[in-house]
């Protein structure tokens, strides 16, 4: 973990925004957000494919594949997308939380429990460093997640149009 350059920082090490960023960046779930577009889309498609294990039988119960193949495929695809959406929401909220803590001048922290919270005002040098990290490291990740959401929304709209044409 990266230590703050200010030795009088009262925030516990694990609650310092820079250390929260480092922890998120190196975790197995959140580190995938920093991959290139191709790898990111491949991971999302793998999750979507894996979600068909649950979505396929549910869709088949509603729309028998041998009778209503179009509805079965659209319903299964939409159902499988739920896993992707839940993952994207989790990733977005985690990165957004850390970005908010990095860009905020005041940092709320807990000394030993929920009942004794304090607020620390970042010195200017720490604030500038943290804002640079948020701008150049986290903002592109949030943008990628937003574009992935937009792509999914576009596919849902296209699927709805196709559904009404069937």
From TrEMBL:
Pfam families, sorted: CGLD27-like (PF06799)
Nucleus found in the keyword field: no
Keywords: Membrane, Transmembrane, Transmembrane helix
Transmembrane recorded as keyword: yes
InterPro entries, sorted: CGLD27-like (IPR009631)
Membrane-spanning ranges: 45-63, 69-93, 147-165
This protein's name: CGLD27 family protein
Biological source species: Calothrix parietina FACHB-288
């Amino acid at each position: 973990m990266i230590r703050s350059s200010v030795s009088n920082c009262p925030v516990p090490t694990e609650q310092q925004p820079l250390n929260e960023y480092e922890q998120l960046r190196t975790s197995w779930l959140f580190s995938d957000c920093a991959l290139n577009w191709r790898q990111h889309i491949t991971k999302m498609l793998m999750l979507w494919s894996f979600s068909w294990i649950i979505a396929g039988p549910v869709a088949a119960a509603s729309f028998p594949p041998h009778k209503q193949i179009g509805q079965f495929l659209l319903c299964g695809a939409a159902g499988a997308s739920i896993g992707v959406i839940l993952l994207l929401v989790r990733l977005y909220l985690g990165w957004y939380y850390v970005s908010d803590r990095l860009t905020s001048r005041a940092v709320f922290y807990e000394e030993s429990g929920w009942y004794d919270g304090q607020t620390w005002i970042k010195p200017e040098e720490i604030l500038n460093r943290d804002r640079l990290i948020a701008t150049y490291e986290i903002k592109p990740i949030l943008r990628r997640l937003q574009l992935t959401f937009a792509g999914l929304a576009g596919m849902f709209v296209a699927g709805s149009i196709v559904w009404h044409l069937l």
